[in-house]
Specification:
Shape: globular
Number of helices: 4
Order of helices and strands: HHEEEHEEEH
Strand order of the largest sheet: 3-1-5-4
Structural class: alpha+beta
Helix content: 25-40%
Amino acid sequence: MLHLMLELIPAPLHRRLYRMADWARRRWWRIRRPDRTSVVVAAFDAGGRILLVRHSYGPPVWALPGGGIGRNEDPAAGAAREFREELGCELAGLVQVAVLEQEESGSRDLLHLFTGELAGTPAPDMREIVEVGLFDPEALPPRCDKRVTPALTIRSQQR
């Protein structure tokens, strides 16, 4: 329901609100130092290319799609939901490959890393995600998020 209501906000205003909320959230994390749980998805097409996205907020880097999940939300369900909301397509063969603990802006984040195969054509929602790209793992674009390399390393170790 909330997701549908947010779509009533014009996309340019929505992107501006995301940037403001991200700025406030990171400052709050430095003060509060919360424990968080999030998910990221390393999605691959049939040719083995990895899907990377650019967010409308935060550092201007190519990143894996994903986001925070609720306290009682199953990580796999959260990963599938985040992917569907941000990119408008589904995943096949979603598998959790790692749980990493990291610090970001003063908060401790328990990050669930998933891999999956694209089942559809991803398209940016032009609110949270403003650009998508498929990249050969050996030819990544400049300025990738710190989570991309560990995802590729884990995937190559499993093959």
